[in-house]
Backbone:
């Protein structure tokens, strides 16, 4: 028969395993979504420039992103956003690990 302390330790270990499995699932989902977004960006960047201008522009109001010279700026903005998301996820994971170690 197990003592109360052994049961509590087993319960904490089971909770840790459940949290670990949940975090692993979330990481797989985030990785998959990130990979799909990267593929979408590469496909959009590889499109011929003629296909991007099939939409007729009535004036320039609100459609300045369809101009010829802004593709690089948009690409830099998207890459910067993806890098920021990646760094944020790493910081959150590091913070969670540190918090879990402090709790034990």
Residues:
């Amino acid at each position: 028969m197990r003592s109360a302390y052994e049961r509590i330790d087993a319960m904490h270990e089971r909770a840790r395993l459940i949290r670990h499995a949940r975090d692993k699932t979330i990481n797989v989902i985030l990785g998959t979504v990130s990979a799909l977004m990267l593929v979408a960006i590469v496909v959009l960047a590889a499109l011929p420039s003629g296909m991007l201008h099939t939409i007729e522009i009535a004036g320039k109001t609100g459609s300045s992103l369809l101009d010829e010279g802004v593709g690089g700026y948009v690409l830099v903005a998207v890459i910067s956003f993806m890098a920021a998301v990646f760094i944020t996820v790493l910081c959150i994971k590091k913070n969670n690990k540190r918090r879990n170690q402090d709790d034990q």
In short: The longest helix spans residues 4-46. The chain has one domain: 4-103.
